[in-house]
Amino acid sequence: MLKQINYVTGVKMYYFRMLLAFMAISFLTVSCKDKAVEAPQTVSPPSIVSLSPDAGTEGTEVVILGENFGDNNSKVDVNFGSKAAEITKRSGTELKVKAPAGFNNVAVDVSVSVSGRGSNIKKFTYNDTTFPLITTMTTTCFYSSAVVINGNNFSPDIQGNIVKFGAIEGTVTAATKTSLTVTTPDLGSVATAEVTVTKSGLTSNAKSIVVDVDQNKIATYNWTTHTVKQGLIYKTGQFSLFGETQRRVYILDVTLNASNTLGIGFTTTDVNTVTMCNNYNAVAGVNAGYFPFGGSSDKDPYIRINSATVQNGHTNVSQIFTNSALLINNNVATVRKFTESGKNLNLVAAAIPATEAQNIIVCGPMLITSGIIEALDMSASHNSSQTSRTGLGVTIDGKRIFMVVVDTGGGVTGVTTLQLAKILQALGAVNAMNLDGGGSSTMFVSNQGDNGRVNFPAGGTYMRPVRSVIYVK
User: Fold this and answer.
1) CATH number of the domain at 133-214, out of 1.25.10.10, 2.60.120.260, 2.60.40.10, 1.10.510.10?
2) Which of 151, 204, 441, 445 has its CB surrounded by the most CB atoms within 10 Å?
3) For position 1, what pLDDT does the model report?
């Protein structure tokens, strides 16, 4: 009987265990099915295709086209950099927003976020909305002169600035946010002009600039010209200048290259400019350095030719005759001002290594330094007398030379050193120096004038013997 009871009990336990196993399997099966049903669907992140426009200012309406911008229940955010933009219209493929405040003259990242999922990045450029401001600028100008304008909020892009002299636009040649360099247009006969700068449609305050009437006349004058050879032009003109007075001006405009070589000629025996230029087989030239003449003080300049010193020059000579020098090295010309004190500037010139200047001649005074006319001492008669003058100027690269002679007598009047400086500056010289003048002032041009003499020294035909020339061949 006991065995029968145990048998029945064991059978019941077996079936009970089987039932539990079946229920567990059923539960697991249902549970797995439930989990498979509940697995989240993959949602693609938002994607920006384009911004229109992609530049503007605060409040500009920007249309953002793309994909996966969500539905009406989605949380959508649009950011311009760190600033949230106001959304004015939305769909799954298009958003309209207003560019937020807080940016100027900068490109910012634009992104879209939908329910926390971020998009790719597109750039939006905030235009510059600050007005340009002129604080200071060059005080005078003339046709083709360089005017430097200082201030704030200019465009660093040359093309981004419009500079006008009155209603006439100049040419911007260099630009930073605080400085512009502009070439003056032809302003005709006006005495002053109001200068303005316009950037992104925003126009600055106006500053008045004086138009130098005489320099403008020189820069726009219809010179009588003759091409001596390619790169060497001889010009002449006679007209009222520096008032109603008639002036007669002669110019050699030379581009230095393999065909046009600049040189210094020298002799210990006095000969006139034309003869000395011919002795050097030159095609054009002018008289150069001082020399003792008719009881004048000793002020011989230091002269070096082809790396060899040919004249040491006097010591104890006033700076008015010695504070500048023409240096020629590998056919590149420099007019250098000596800033050293004392009266022995010929020694300063002699100390310049031949590797820096194969050719040197000292003279003075310096007329123009780095585009600025020197503060010449007009109380000195050497500067203030209106007499025949010879001067030389160079462009910044040293490859273009202007040699000028101004006559006196015979119905015309000479010029002061300040007026000579203005002539050279108006022609385009950035650095310039005065050479020996008076009866020495002579210009030679091969096959022109009277056997090469084209001007009238001291109003006549007599050519004073000199000891040095500057020539081109």
Assistant:
1) 2.60.40.10
2) 441
3) 46
